[in-house]
Write a structure and sequence with these properties.
The protein is of the alpha/beta class. The strands form four sheets. The protein has a five-stranded mixed β-sheet, sandwiched between helices. Strands 6-11-7-10 form a four-stranded mixed β-sheet. The longest helix is centred in the first third of the chain and has 20 residues. 40% of the residues are buried.
Amino acid sequence: MKKVFAFILALSLICCSSFALADEKTKVSIGVTGAFYEDLWAPAIEALAKENIIVELEQFSDFALPNNALNDGSISMNAFQHHAYFNNDTQTNGYDLSVLADTFVITMNIYSAKFDTIEDLVAAANEGKKLTVVVPNDATNYGRALILLANAGLITLNEYEGTPNIENIVDAKVELEPVNAAMTYQFLTEVDAAVINGNYAASYGVDPESAIFYEEIDLTNESFICVIAVRTQDIENPVYKRVAEVFCSDVTGEVANTDFKGFFHLVWEADKAAE
């Protein structure tokens, strides 16, 4: 991870002055999923504009869309997914895409409009009450939700590789209702609890401290570290590398740690702390 950023930094420093002095503007379109990305990217977009790199965000309503759009050339880059989703989606669909940079882990937590604590939810489940928990329905985020629910004591999993699936559930105290990840928040008041991806929770203005159970973050496991992706043919594009470098810096860290405090664990800050 450090080597990737060191390489990006070295190349970007060589190219930085030419960007700043360029007369022609270079447009870069980036696919994202969730309104909060507009605020998260705003400082980097402003900084890049001074170097004549004009970044435009393109919102997608479903996780299934941005990789297809990137692969067919409709957008320049995307920044919405973690490694586990990227690996599964590119392999399943035969996309020729590559990871340009690691960015952050955005938390997936359990929220409830009916229970104040996870202990209350587990107690109700142990009493035999029929409880329903909404989870994302795409393969990787479904597996991520299963790990979270197992850590919360609501299901039991057997051994698995990568991320678990429904076949790994050996016992469940709650009924799982898979829905599109973008819809999980909208079901919150209709079910007993919901597992919500951080990007959608942030987009709906959810306070992360209102979660009843929090995901354990392990930055040594890249599975749920989000990425900036490009077409493989563009992996050496100096403009795209500059976009990644500026985004993965203090300009983004400031807004992530203030306006969205509690949602993000920034890879570049962890790398600096480890040096």
